[in-house]
Amino acid sequence: MEKFFSVIMPNYNNGEWLSQSLSSIFNQTFKDYEVIVVDDCSTDNSIEEIEKFDVKLIKCTEKVFNGGGRNLGIKAATGKYVLFLDSDDWFSDENVFQKIYNKIIENNYPDCVSLSYDCLIGNNKSLQVMDRNNQKDLVESLYVACWTKCVKRELLPLFPENTLMEDVVQHIKCCDKLKTIVSIKEPMIVWNRNNTNSCSREENQNLQQGKWQSSMYRYAADLMDFTCENQVCEDHRKWRLGICLNNIKDGKYIQ
Fold first, then answer.
1. Which domains does the chain have, with CATH numbers?
2. Is there a contact between 183 and 116 (Cβ–Cβ < 8 Å)?
3. Is the separation of the CB atoms in 248 and 213 below 8 Å?
4. Residue pLDDT, tens place only, 213-248
């Protein structure tokens, strides 16, 4: 039976954080959801932690990285809308799903709800307000993480795979499909910057089989392999590509 939300969570060796992350889902007051966890060949206690919860668990037999894991989740999802959550982050409170649902109903089922979040460093939280209510503002946002958007499932493009910089390409492709966008200004997610193993931290350039440098070249190729229908999205694609090519020329492999 179709659920209202599908929550997709890729995981690799985040056993330390999984209980908090998954508990923030299963403590929600709004219950019409499914949870899909894709484990990317973890070697820690992740599977043991995941199996404590009622999730659809997909165990990868070879590395697929975040993009491949999220794609497996998208293909398995049945919800009207998709939420992403990384396995070291968590939802801000137990009413997040209800608040997103209310915003969707109040706005006649928009294509996308832009989600604000708290950035957690140490014990300090800083609010990032995602006040993005049109295609131009959303695509030009520097905060492109897929978990900042709740999107109709049929509008979600797949992610580039076997690379570590998958969010930007998918973000641009996704924005190109969105016509109606609303936003929630209070934080829905806590972005946990205290995980020292996170591949999003610049000091971990060699994390996950040293794929940062090759990912930059793949990222450039992915940006060249499509064009957008909407001009604001196409302009942004070209801008991102220009930055990427300049960084490669200068030997900078973090986008």
1. 5-249 (3.90.550.10)
2. yes
3. no
4. 888 899 999 999 999 999 999 999 999 999 999 989
